[in-house]
């Protein structure tokens, strides 16, 4: 990248021996310094900037569909330009899904009962100041495609064979059927799945598999065998018996083996129709075995186990298996409660009505009671029990299964309080003001209210401020004034108070304090008091400057500010009381000025070239550096204007000051400081 070429002095405003520095990076022209008129300005010139929060960003494209029984997962991408900690939230979360507020991840496996559409899901991310959301989206839970039927497993030579499976696809769905190991004597219809034909020779046709697809999902029947037998009038069919269990529990093993025999002593082979996917089948024994998962909850009807001896077959009556869910416990316990406020949480379970349940708890707070029959945790903590109660675990058992909620904590916070001592006297023509305070944490949304507000006063429901200026016609006592505050959960109230409005007191205080003082100079002001009623006077002050002293016996404000005290103290109020009446001076500001206020004018030549001789086309402006040491010019002024070639530095204290200028480009490249000039300020 080309560096910015240095320029030379245009002119010197006064004689200064300057050392021309070698330039490595971009540098502006040489700088001259001249004397300028003195000024009483006290502001400090330097680089300044403003900061504002940038809202976080969030993106991602969630999958719009998921098949019941299959896992769904989506995690958005989020970032924050300010590096703030991000927190995620969601609305319309499907009941089968979980949400991670630290990553924004949505995940879960919808069960068969969850088939349907889940619209208007919105994921948002917040940096604590601003919130950004993904566009609302929907998730459609699709039923798994299934294919079923009970194909005949025997057919005599010369007899017609026909089998057509069924599916659960909605009417009108475009389906394509396929087959593996189709017998040579049979034809197959890919549009309907029909397998048909008339065998002419005896034989066994094994491992036939019919499948179907809707373009997204594919489902297959269990492999089956067709035995083409020569008619044997003397053959007796085999027999099969047994009573399979009609229910299964998630996570528990299901097992059934039928009993079968053949009067002719022939070898037996078993087959099954409409086998649930979570069960395995043994064609040698007819056994069904397997453990259903949470996604397998539901009823599986029309299961048929068949046995054949190669010539004849027999089947058990069709039966169903209902898979019930494992015992679960759910609920979101409140994680905070204010001292003196009742707390209550009762979890829910998926147990059928009438199920005998027993609840238990670990690490229950000492202030709470627990009901083993319902799982309710309830109690009212006191102010002495403020703190965090961690690792609370609630469990439930039906005597066979046990389910447990995730461990949680309860934070007991201090009760909401409101405090303050409202003035009980007001003076005609003088402003009255009182604002209570609370112990609510910063950012808490509070609402204030008032009873028996004086007619001459206004009240702020946002701050609780009561203020106003009574007139001569409003002299009197305004009693039973009550100010309250609520955070939406708790309410706290100040004790009732009264305000007495009286005519202006005879006690007066006057004087015109000086509103500025130079660093190192003594400041003194004593007010004048008129106290015709007599009595000992006591003075007080609000917003006293840190460098000043105050005499409560005379009201005198004195002190000598140091350089570190430069600046303005606002809203200083001096008051006096004789024990009965009180009076105050009007609020005033006191500014501490630097002891010197010299100036210097800097003048330089505009930069037009880079160090390689090419034209400088992206000049953005200049930086002015100055300080009381040539090696440490630690004060900076940014001039965001490429056409400016002069600058007045003000508010310089006594001593020798050093100055330099550097150019900078729109891409942020900054040249080295030019040759350094100096000026002595008397």
Description:
The protein is mainly beta. The chain folds into six domains: 1-41 and 597-682, Immunoglobulins (Immunoglobulin-like, Sandwich); 57-142, Immunoglobulin-like (Sandwich), CATH 2.60.40; 147-324, Sandwich (Immunoglobulin-like); 329-413, Immunoglobulin-like, CATH 2.60.40.10; 418-502, Sandwich (Immunoglobulin-like); 508-593, Immunoglobulin-like, CATH 2.60.40. 0% of the residues lie in helices and 44% in strands. The protein contains no helices and 67 strands. The strands form 20 sheets. Strands 3, 6, 9, 10 and 11 form a five-stranded mixed sheet that branches. Strands 13, 16, 19, 20 and 21 form a five-stranded mixed sheet that branches. Strands 23, 26, 29, 30 and 31 form a five-stranded mixed sheet that branches. Strand 57 and strand 58 (557-559) form a beta hairpin. It is elongated. The two termini are 44 Å apart. Mean pLDDT is 86; it is low at 5-50.
Q: What's the β-strand tally?
A: 67
Profile the largest sheet: 5 strands, mixed
State the end-to-end distance. 44 Å
Helicity level, as a percent range?
under 10%
Q: Structural class of the helices, strands and pairings?
A: mainly beta
**Total count of helical runs of at least 4 residues:** 0
Low-confidence stretches: 5-50
Mean pLDDT: 86
Fraction of residues in β-strands: 35-45%
User: What gyration radius follows from the Cα positions, in whole Å?
Assistant: 45 Å
CATH architecture of the largest domain: Sandwich
Backbone shape: elongated
Count of folded domains: 6
CATH topology of the largest domain: Immunoglobulin-like
CATH class of the largest domain: Mainly Beta
What's the name of the CATH homologous superfamily of the largest domain? Cadherins
């Amino acid at each position: 990248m080309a560096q910015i070429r240095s320029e030379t002095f245009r002119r010197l405003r006064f004689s200064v021996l300057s050392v021309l520095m070698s330039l490595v990076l971009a540098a502006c022209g040489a700088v001259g310094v001249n004397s300028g008129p003195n000024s009483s300005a006290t502001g400090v010139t330097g680089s300044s900037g403003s900061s504002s929060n940038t809202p976080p960003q969030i993106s991602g494209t969630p999958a719009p569909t998921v098949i019941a029984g299959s896992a769904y997962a989506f995690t958005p991408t989020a970032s924050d330009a300010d590096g703030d900690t991000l927190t995620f939230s969601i609305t319309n979360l499907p009941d089968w899904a979980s949400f991670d507020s630290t990553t924004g991840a949505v995940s879960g496996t919808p069960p068969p009962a969850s088939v349907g559409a889940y619209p208007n899901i919105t994921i948002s991310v917040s940096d604590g100041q601003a919130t950004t959301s993904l566009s609302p989206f929907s998730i459609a839970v699709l039923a798994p495609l299934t294919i079923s039927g009970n194909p005949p497993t025997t057919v005599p030579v010369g007899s017609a064979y026909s089998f057509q499976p069924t599916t659960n696809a909605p009417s009108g769905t475009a389906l394509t059927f396929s087959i593996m190991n189709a017998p040579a004597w049979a034809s197959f219809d890919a549009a309907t799945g029909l397998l048909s034909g008339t065998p002419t020779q005896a034989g066994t046709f094994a491992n036939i598999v019919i499948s179907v697809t809707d373009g997204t999902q594919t489902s297959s029947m269990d492999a089956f065998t067709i035995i083409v037998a020569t008619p044997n009038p003397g053959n007796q069919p085999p027999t099969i018996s047994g009573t399979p269990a009609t229910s299964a529990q998630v996570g528990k093993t299901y097992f059934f083996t039928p009993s079968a025999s053949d009067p002719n002593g022939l070898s037996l082979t078993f087959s099954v129709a409409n086998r649930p996917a979570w069960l395995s089948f043994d064609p040698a024994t007819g056994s069904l075995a397997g453990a259903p998962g949470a996604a397998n909850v539901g009823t599986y009807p029309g299961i048929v186990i068949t046995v054949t001896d190669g010539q004849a077959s027999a089947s058990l009556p069709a039966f169903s298996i209902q898979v019930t869910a494992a015992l679960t416990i759910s609920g979101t316990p409140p994680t905070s409660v204010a001292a003196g406020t009742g707390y209550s949480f009762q979890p829910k379970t998926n147990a059928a009505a009438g199920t005998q349940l027993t609840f238990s708890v670990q690490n229950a707070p000492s202030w709470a009671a627990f009901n083993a029959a319902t799982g309710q945790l309830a109690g009212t903590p006191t102010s002495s029990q403020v703190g965090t109660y961690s690792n609370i675990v609630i469990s439930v058992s039906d005597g066979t299964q046990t389910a447990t909620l995730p461990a949680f904590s309860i934070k007991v916070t201090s009760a909401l309080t409101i405090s303050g001592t409202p003035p009980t006297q007001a003076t005609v023509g003088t402003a009255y003001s009182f604002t209570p305070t609370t112990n609510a944490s910063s950012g808490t949304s509070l609402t204030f209210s008032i009873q028996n507000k004086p007619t001459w006063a206004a009240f702020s429901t946002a701050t609780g401020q009561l203020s106003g200026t009574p007139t001569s016609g409003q002299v009197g006592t305004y009693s039973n004034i009550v100010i309250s505050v609520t955070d939406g959960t708790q309410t706290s109230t100040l004790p009732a108070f009264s305000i007495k409005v009286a005519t202006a007191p005879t006690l007066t205080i006057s004087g015109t304090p000086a509103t500025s003082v130079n660093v190192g100079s003594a400041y003194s002001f004593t007010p004048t008091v008129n106290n015709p009623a007599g009595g000992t006077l006591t003075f007080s002050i609000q917003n006293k400057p840190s460098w000043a002293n105050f005499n409560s016996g005379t009201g005198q404000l004195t002190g000598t500010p140091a350089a570190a005290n430069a600046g303005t103290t606002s809203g200083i109020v001096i008051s006096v009381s004789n024990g009965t009446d009180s009076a105050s001076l009007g609020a005033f500001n006191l500014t501490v000025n630097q002891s010197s206020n010299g100036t210097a004018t800097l003048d330089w030549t505009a930069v037009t070239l880079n160090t390689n001789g090419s034209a400088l086309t992206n000049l953005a402006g200049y930086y002015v550096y100055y300080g009381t040491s040539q090696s440490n010019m630690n004060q900076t002024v940014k001039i965001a204007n490429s056409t400016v070639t002069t600058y007045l530095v003000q508010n310089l204290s006594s001593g020798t000051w050093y100055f330099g200028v550097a150019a900078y480009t729109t891409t942020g490249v900054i040249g080295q400081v030019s040759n350094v000039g100096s000026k002595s300020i008397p």
